[in-house]
Write a structure and sequence with these properties.
This protein has helices at about 1-10, 25-35, 50-70; strands at about 15-20, 40. By secondary structure, it is mostly helical. The longest helix has 19 residues, at about 50-70.
Length: about 70
């Protein structure tokens, strides 16, 4: 969240990507920072997924990421 806020402060549109395990943590950090950070959540866990499974998660999240980064 800090990095996203920092990048956006510099004028770089940014979106955080995290697994669903971190929904609550992202909300708390956003409130703490006083900044409504754009985040896209993907299925948890990711560490034991194959390349094809990770590609599938990325493909599924792509439109949401683009929508948030473009302000849509």
């Amino acid at each position: 969240m800090h990095d996203i806020k920092g990048l956006e402060t510099l004028g770089v549109p940014s979106v955080g990507i995290a697994t669903t395990e971190f929904v609550d943590a992202a909300e708390v950090q956003s409130k703490y920072l006083g900044y409504n950070t754009a985040v896209v959540f993907v299925a948890h866990p990711i560490q034991d997924r194959t390349h094809a499974e990770l590609q599938g998660l990325a493909d599924k999240a792509f439109e949401e990421i683009i929508g948030k980064i473009s302000g849509g």
